Automatic annotation (TrEMBL):
Molecular-function GO term, any one: oxidoreductase activity
PANTHER family (UniProt xref): NAD(P)-LINKED OXIDOREDUCTASE SUPERFAMILY PROTEIN (PTHR43364:SF4), NADH-SPECIFIC METHYLGLYOXAL REDUCTASE-RELATED (PTHR43364)
Keywords, in A-Z order: Oxidoreductase
Protein's recorded name: Aryl-alcohol dehydrogenase-like predicted oxidoreductase
Record-annotated NADP-dependent oxidoreductase domain positions: 15-344
Transmembrane feature ranges: none
InterPro entries: AKR_Detox_Biosynth, NAD(P)_OxRdtase_dom_sf, NADP_OxRdtase_dom
Top-rank taxon: Bacteria
Length: 353
């Protein structure tokens, strides 16, 4: 894989990124280190994590994923310099008081979270520091509509940018990004950065897959025109697009033991647990098989080949899964197959938005 630039930054990354939210929950430390070793061996130079990981978020596992990665870096001198490291500061609490209390995301919160991530990751600098979800009230994580009556914003975007600018000036962060953002948010972060000489966001990390193509409903044009790159997460829709749930219900006996969507009640209540999402996934998975592809290969190839996507974040629980996901690189989808994919979307829209 060649490397590609992220936004208008000097970061160059592989078009596949290793996501790590399973480390410390589904994946123990030894296996996590083996997956990291294998990813590096296969040429992946981009690793994404977050202060709130592992997932599902619990007080007991807060920061564990970053610590696992930090101990991996400590194993071998020079290992840190081989990867582009991204992590995220959590937004307002969303029911996680062990991260922070209150409804806002203050400048002090941003600085304190960065310092904690640096310690856990055992590094002097974070290459890409992202705001995990907006400080504003926005539709995210399964909600559909913006409701101004629910607005609780307390920290203006400019104040957030100024806090990030301080971290950049201090040499603790190289570039900044957003996650789970809206067109308004991206425009405002870029506008204020350009107007006040603050760090310009390089990336937005949002869901993008066959079951959720809402990125193409305006954010793609926004980011294309502003020079901001998409980091696509959940390309396999939390496993729905692997085909492993096709034979039965997502919570029934047919769900593979240890599968995230079968194990985590919080996930089943969100977008990936909707019956409509499973029904749509089964349609796409059948289409893949009809064209001689595994569901996983088709779903990943869809993301890997879209002009909207800079780098696709893959989350795995084993080296075998990692190899399967990486082996899908280079797969092209025939024009008639893409037309059939679009026909299903026209009918079923985005059931996992």
């Amino acid at each position: 894989m060649n490397t590609i630039p992220l936004g208008q930054s000097d970061l160059r990354v592989t078009p596949i990124c290793l996501g790590t939210m399973t480390f410390g929950e589904q994946v123990n430390e030894a296996d996590a280190h083996a997956i990291l070793d294998r990813a590096l061996e296969r040429g992946v130079n981009f690793i994404d994590t977050a202060e709130m990981y592992a997932v599902p978020a619990r007080a007991e596992t807060y920061g564990v994923t970053e610590s696992i990665i930090g101990r991996w870096f400590a194993r071998q001198p020079g290992l840190r310099q081989k990867v582009v490291l991204a992590t995220k500061v959590a937004g307002p609490s969303r029911g996680m008081p062990w991260i922070r209390e209150g409804k806002g995301l203050t400048a002090a919160d941003i600085v304190a979270s960065c310092e904690g991530s640096l310690r856990r990751l055992r590094t002097d600098v974070i290459d890409l520091y992202q705001i995990h979800w907006p400080e504003r009230h926005v539709p995210a994580f399964g909600t559909m509509y913006y409701d101004p009556a629910k607005e609780t914003s307390q920290t203006p975007i400019r104040v957030q940018l100024e806090a990030l600018a301080g971290l950049v000036r201090a040499g603790k962060v190289r570039h900044v990004g957003l996650s789970n953002e809206t067109p308004y948010g991206v425009h405002e972060f870029v506008r204020l950065a350009e107007e006040h000489g603050l760090p310009r966001v390089a990336t937005v990390q949002n869901p993008y897959c066959l079951l959720n193509r809402t990125w193409e409903n305006g954010l793609d044009e926004t980011c294309h025109r502003l020079g901001v790159s998409l980091l696509a997460y959940s390309p396999l829709a939390f496993g729905l697009l692997t085909g492993k749930y096709d034979a039965g219900g997502t919570t029934g006996p047919q769900a593979p033991q240890g599968a995230r969507i079968a194990s985590y009640a919080s996930v089943r209540k969100q977008r990936w647990g909707r019956p409509e999402a499973l029904q749509a996934a089964r349609r796409y998975n059948a289409l893949a098989r009809a064209h001689g592809l595994t569901p996983t290969r088709m779903a990943l190839a869809f993301c890997y080949t879209k002009w909207q996507v800079a780098s696709t974040i893959i989350g795995v629980t084993s080296r075998a899964q990692l190899d399967e996901n990486l082996d899908a690189w280079g797969t092209t989808l025939a024009p008639e197959l893409l037309q059939e994919i679009d026909a299903i979307r026209w009918e079923l829209r985005d059931p996992a938005l």
